[in-house]
Amino acid sequence: MPETLAFLLGFFLLLVNAANLRAQDAGASPAPTKISIGYLRAYEPQLALSILDVPPRDEGVAGANVAINDNNTTGKFLGQSFSLDVVEVKFEADVVATFKEMLGRGDKFVLTDISAAQLLSIADLARENGALLFNVGATDDVLREEECRSNVFHTAPTRSMLADGLAQYLVWKQWRKWVLLYGSHERDQLYADAIRRAATRFGATIVEERLYKDTGSARRTDTGVIQVQRQMPVFTQNLPEHDVVIVADESEVFGSYVPYRTWTPRPVAGTAGLIPSSWHPASEQWGGSQIQNRFSKATGRRMLSKDMQAWTAVRILGEAATRTQGNDAGKIEAFIKSDDFSIAAFKGQKVTFRTWNWQLRQPILLGDGRGVVSTSPQEGFLHQFSELDTLGVDRPETKCKLK
Questions:
Q1: In what helix (H) or strand (E) does residue 119 lie, and over which residues does it extend?
Q2: CA 380 → CA 4, 99, 276, 290, distances in Å?
Q3: 4: buried, middle or exposed (CB in 10 Å: 19+, 13-18, 0-12)?
Q4: Measuring CA to CA, how many Å separate 26 from each of 8, 21, 31, 73, 296?
Q5: Per-residue pLDDT tens digits for 280-315
Q6: For 18-27, what is each residue's pLDDT tens digit?
Q7: What is the mean pLDDT of the chain?
Q8: pLDDT band of 350, cuts 50, 70, 90
Q9: According to a count of CB atoms within 10 Å of the terminal CB, is the N or C end of the chain lower?
């Protein structure tokens, strides 16, 4: 009996010591390195000519969240933990105070889906506080040219990249005579400017331009289809001989009404018809089905361009954090700007940043409502460094002087 009691006492002490050792080991394990990524977006409910074109509530944010999960899949083995801090403001609201709050919470890496003016209002403040911005929404060329910043990376393509991608395909098809229909809002004018530049650059001719003024009428009414069916043929009547009609209507006032309603039967491209973009919901080439399936499982819908732009930005940060083994903003910035940096983005080739303005090089997909028609750069458009630099403003053309 004494031996039995001694054995039981010894066994009990062994269990206690083992539990203490496990607790000590757990306490000795380093806490994961936390990497908080901010997401500053301007959001308000929007109208579109077709209800199918109304942006999803989580457009962009959904892509970022999928990338956060992708980063954490790898990060858990490396002692890294990624999180997303989403903040919303109104269109054209003052975002400085909001951004300062994000900085106060420790957001050193911030995705921005805001206007060019809003982005410029915080770019220098971000640099002064050692923060990096990733523009996932604004296509304005001015952000990469006259108002470029050394701490702002752009995963959204520029309007000039989109226009050049479209122009290359139209020229490849030998559709060189264009009619340009553009809206009366500033964004429409900027898109039209990009189309004009692309025509000059690739040898096309704009045979006529016509302005469609926004009169403020209802975009969708019970009698709208009848009115549009009568209006669009008149608007496009008596045009010179042309191969294609190009629409510049980012404001969604008239562009979606142009296909199949022109006076002369011609293909439509631009912001309606054949649309250039950084991504397409039907893209499945180059492993695209993998990201599409992951995205669809997580969100219940297909991936849009802004989702891909946000996904790419978060994955860039994930790759940089992995390679630098930490969350130091300076080291992450240095890696992204190094010659070693590239990232796979399901577009047939690794993408890199242009060192003169920190715009992400990327193919432009041309698609309609059903699928991808083509991808630019097109065959035969050569470049001494990268064929992707045939899209948008090239180094010899740039006005960027990084600040």
A1: helix 116-128
A2: 88, 45, 19, 30
A3: exposed
A4: 27, 9, 10, 21, 37
A5: 999 999 999 999 999 999 999 999 999 999 999 999
A6: 444 454 444 5
A7: 91
A8: confident
A9: N
Tell me which residue has tokens 């649309």. 275
Residue 7 in this model has a pLDDT that exceeds 80: no
Sign of the four-CA dihedral 98, 104, 105, 109: positive
Residue 165 gets the label, from left (phi > 0), alpha (psi -120 to 50) or beta, of alpha
Rounded-to-integer distance, Cα 163 and Cα 305, Å: 16
For residue 105, pLDDT beyond 50? yes
Alpha helices in 280-395 (DSSP H): 288-299, 305-324, 329-336
Mean pLDDT of 70-92: 95
Burial of 28 (0-12, 13-18, 19+ CB in 10 A): exposed
> Tell me, what DSSP letter sits at residue 51?
G
∠284-285-286 over CA atoms, to 5°?
125
Q: Going along 61-203, which residue ranges are E strands?
A: 80-89, 109-113, 132-135, 152-154, 177-183
- Spatial CA neighbour of 155 closest among 352, 37, 313, 307: 313
**List of residues 6+ apart from 134 with CB closer than 8 A:** 109, 110, 111, 112, 152, 153, 154, 155, 313, 316, 317
How many angstroms separate the CA atoms of 172 and 272, rounded? 20
Residue type, 285: Q
- The two beta strands, 364-367 and 275-277, are antiparallel
**Contact indicator for 43, 98 with CB cutoff of 8 Å:** no
Where do we find the tokens 């403003």?
A: 393
What does the alpha-carbon distance between residue 165 and residue 363 come to, in Å, rounded to a whole number?
8
Where is 343: in which H helix or E strand? Answer: strand 343-344
Tokens of 130: 């050692």
